Amino acid sequence: MASREIHVPDLGNFKDVAVIEVLVKAGDRVEVDTPLLTLETEKATMDVPSPAAGTIERLLVEKGGVVSTGTLVALLAVEGGTATAAPPAASPAVPVAVPPAAAAGLPPAATPAPVAAVAVAPAAAPAPVNEAGFAAAHASPGVRRFARELGVDLGRVRGSGLKGRIVETDVKAHVKSLLAGSGAAMAAGGGGGGGGGGLPRIVVPDFTQFGAIEVKPLGRIKRISGPRLQASWVNLPHVTQFDEADITDMEAARVKLKDGAAARGVKLTPLAFILRAVVRTLQQFPHFNASLDAAGENLIYKKYLHLGFAADTPNGLLVPVIRDADKKDIYELARALAALSEKARGGKLSGPEMQGGCFTVSSLGGIGGTAFTPIINAPELAILGVSRAAMKPVYRDGAFVPRLMLPLSLSYDHRVIDGADGARFSTALAAALADTAGLLEAVP
Question: Were both Cys, which of 9, 281, 287, 320 would link to 340 (CB 3.0–4.6 Å)?
């Protein structure tokens, strides 16, 4: 029997990730890919699988601890082979419930507190964050970023973790205490995420007085994504621009090409064409491919273009990210869509495959609907919602003709993008979708 070290696989940019569950104990027999631990990052809950079959000799982490890429978590006794001392090079953790980041009605990709603003006394503004105290607080980078999003001063939060470490639940509890109406806590405790403003509490009655009820826990994805959606909705001034694109010619070209593409192993879906049109439009409007800095005073222009898209899976809605979408033609985008969608459905997306998105597309066309208001996946500045296309009579050259019209719902951050820009973007996007030749052009 040889002893093999098990290390945390690549978690992307995440560090100090919380161990929320330990699934095995010393002496347990495990097989290849048996889940050992469950971790919770800001974008996903994921399992760390066993890289080999064997018996757990020793566990080196416990529930409530934190780990990073390469952390030694267990020793595994395996039959034959030789002992290992280095972490495996590429064995991605398997997300089992990821928010994404979101689209309207879609779980987004981070985990802020259950509120995004704090009720503030009408005559008093929230106290500013004490940077010295914030810096000295005992908390992970993820919790610090979490607190920043809500304007909570970590120097005033009591930690419940190991050695007084502040964990995410402590920040949530602090915000809840502010919502409970403690005037002293409000004066001392922190801001309202997007600059203050009170949020009235919703009174939940005892429903049993009206009849029989059944209580079921909210699913993990909704528990993670709900606060993020609320934070984005409260902190970002959303405007949604509705439009329609004539995709009659685009769909005719897609139908004509799809059999040939299938013979090459490519599933040529309408979403691939939509993503290609989004890329071309973002290239015309680079400030839609930007983000505000933490102070809200500077615009960060990105020299890369990574597109997120909503993927419906048995575990919930995930948002994989197609990297360098501007360097992919229609067929390469279709391949990336298919590959990432399959990984999402199988729960095999890695952390890096859900990070770095610049703009998100939420397509509900396969389900139905005529329009919706997608919620921006902050820190992105805009998101595109796509509903089901329908044949409509369109007046052209003195007569009504049947055209296949695609409903578009573009939500954008009004702090950066004004109504005129939003209308120009949606108009340009509709023009790009109508330009079939342009969508099929080769990408240098």
Answer: 320
Neighbours of 286 (CB within 10 A): 13
CA 400 to chain centre: 42
| Token pair 């959303």: residue | 238
Token pair 């010393």 in the structure block, residue: 26
405 has which bridge partners? 246, 390
Average pLDDT value over all residues in the chain = 82
For the chain, state the CA radius of gyration. 24
Helix (H) or strand (E) holding 360: strand 359-363
The phi and psi torsions of 244 (rounded to 5 degrees) equal: -130, 145
pLDDT tens for each residue of 232-277? 999 999 999 999 999 999 999 999 999 999 999 999 999 999 999 9
Query: What pLDDT, on a 0 to 100 scale, did the predictor assign at position 146?
Result: 84
Q: Which member of 7, 238, 306, 414 is catalytic? A: 414
Token code pair at residue 422: 């939003």
Nearest in space to 243 (alpha carbons), one of 431, 427, 434: 427
Asked if residues 420 and 259 have their Cβ atoms less than 8 Å apart, the reply is no
Residues 305, 296 contacting (CB under 8 angstroms): no
Q: How far apart are CA 51 and CA 28, in angstroms?
A: 15
Task: Quote the CA–CA distance of 225 and 383 in Å, as a whole number.
Answer: 16
pLDDT in tens, 88-142: 444 444 444 334 443 334 433 333 333 333 433 333 344 556 666 676 777 777 7
Half-sphere exposure for 230 (CA within 13 Å, toward CB): 18
* Burial readout 1-30 (b: 16 or more C-beta within 10 A, e: otherwise): eebbbbbbbbbbebebbbbeebebeeeeeb
CA pair distance 387, 243, nearest whole angstrom: 11
